[in-house]
Amino acid sequence: MKRLTLLAVAFCVLLFSALPATADIIVGLPADSGTGNCYPLSCDYSSEYQQVYTHSQFSGPITITGLQFFNTQYDSGVTSMGSGTWTFSLSTTSADWNTLSATFGSNLGADNTQVFSGNLNQPWTFGDTLSIDLTTSFTYNPADGNLLLDVVSNSSSPDGNIYFDVNSGNDFLGRVYCSGGSGCSGSGSVDAGFGLVTGFVTGNATPEPASLLLMGTGLLMFGGYVRRKLAR
Questions:
Q1: How many other β-carbons are positioned within 10 Å of the β-carbon of residue 110?
Q2: What is the pTM of this model?
Q3: What is the structure's pLDDT at 229?
């Protein structure tokens, strides 16, 4: 019996550790219908990209452990994310959705922190979510200013572009980007009121419903195994 108990505990730990977290804060909903944008996560993009989120979209200090971007509005038929290197940083900034500077360096906050660097290549199906587990968490306090996402990428999309969900015409998102995907040297084009719908994973995130179903199925299977062992 003791052995079965230990097996049950180990099984539950394994299931919970395998569950993908879903964002408990999503900025940019509802997404614009039938459209999207491939900068800087898809397309051939070899430059810097910044996006600011107004502090009013957050409540209280949070520790960000993951980022998510969504592909629910436009199906381009792509079956794989592109390849390359993406470097993500987060910082607290005084720049807002309509006051971003065209000069990338001017928008960075004093607490600018690299939170991820690597290749995002993976199989893709329309409706998928791009989930990025940060290698370094970032604690953000909305009382100190707005949140800035900085992405430096050197990537290509030989299989085609994925158009991630966007929100336009708002007063809580803004971006600076390189028109054409390359050729920017220190500055880009400002686009106030436009940005990628972004999910922020924190310590309060919960598993996705599909993952909960998977866990429940696994527990039922394990329960059947235990019953069979006890019946012998």
A1: 7
A2: 0.81
A3: 52
pLDDT in tens, 66-111: 999 999 999 999 999 999 999 999 999 999 999 999 999 999 999 9
Element (H, E) at 204: none
- CA pair distance 105, 102, nearest whole angstrom: 9
Query: Phi/psi zone of residue 10: left (φ > 0), alpha (ψ -120 to 50 degrees), beta?
Result: alpha
Q: Up-side HSE of residue 18: CA atoms within 13 Å toward CB?
A: 13
- Label residue 49 exposed, middle or buried (CB < 10 Å: 0-12, 13-18, 19+): buried
Q: What does the alpha-carbon distance between residue 186 and residue 106 come to, in Å, rounded to a whole number?
A: 10
Beta strands at 146-156 and 166-168: parallel, antiparallel or unpaired: unpaired
Cβ 140 vs Cβ 1: under 8 Å: no
Average of per-residue pLDDT across 193-220: 64
What burial class does residue 93 get, using C-beta atoms within 10 Å of its C-beta: 0-12 exposed, 13-18 middle, 19+ buried? buried
CA angle 90, 94, 100 (to 5 degrees): 85
Q: Hey, what amino acid is at 209?
A: P
How many C-beta neighbours within 10 Å does residue 99 have? Answer: 14
Closest CA to 86 of 114, 62, 108, 105: 114
Compute the half-sphere exposure of residue 47: CA atoms within 13 Å on the CB side of its CA.
23
CB 92, CB 144: distance < 8 Å: yes
CA dist 66 to 22, 86, 101, 200, Å? Answer: 9, 14, 26, 6
Specify the amino acid at residue 131. S
Pairing of strands 46-53, 146-156: antiparallel
The structure tokens listed for 117 are 């660097």
